[in-house]
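To: structure subgroup
Subject: Chain for Friday's discussion

All,

I'm putting the inputs and outputs inline so they're searchable in the archive.
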Amino acid sequence: MSQPAKTSPRASSAPDAPESAAGTRAAAQRLKMRRELAAAAMELFATKGYEATTVDEIAATAGVARRTFFRHFRSKEEAIFPDHNDTLTRAEAVLDVAPAHEHPLDTVCRGIKEVMKMYAASPAVSVERYRLTREVPALREREIASVARYERLFTRYLLAHFDETDHHDGNDDPLLAEVAASAVVTAHNHVLRRWLRAGGQGDVEAQLDHAFSIVRKTFGTGIGAGRTLGPAAAAPAVPAAVRTEGEVLVAVARTDAPLDEVMRTIEEALRTR
């Protein structure tokens, strides 16, 4: 009896590549269409007004059928925010692959930067969208709902690093985690609004880093302060070890340690001398 031909691992995995490429192309085409529909909606909202604009008109301006519009958006107010779902996915990916030694608050700050990147990629569009959301309550409500999704994501991430039910004297980690997540989102939104009011001008990255440094200074040293590690638990990564030798302060740090954490450790050591 003849034996069935063996398939090598390379041959068996070959079909996955075209499928993956096709999926990537489909996702890119989907995002392109969503952005085209959003651009058409913004154009009509600006010229005709939000209330006077219909879904049919948005679809016609984008050169597609009404049913195509509803394949991408559930309503005309949703069309003004075409990128939030993809941005939320990217922010979640940042959290998923965070290095073990990184402070969870630093990870959250990196994650929310994906939101700022979305706005900064098209300053003119972002500024016009901001103007529309200020004028149309329905769009403002949609924006608030989008912000709440990010806040829930970051709160879940921070709470996952601490025991949410472990409230007792001396351990405020669960409370700090939730407040810190809100602070990160608030700091981001403060910088974003200021940048949008300035017409999308200025170094928004530097402004964001400054705002996050304030959040880290306020909450970063508190989270984890009251935790009691079990015998099997790994000790948290220390960004820098500091010792004094006479009048000299010596700091030793990992090469991948966050710079702001290293500087904070050095500053605290200097203050206690």
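Points worth raising on Friday:
Strands lie at 240-245, 248-253.
The CA atoms of residues 166 and 225 lie 13 Å apart.

D.
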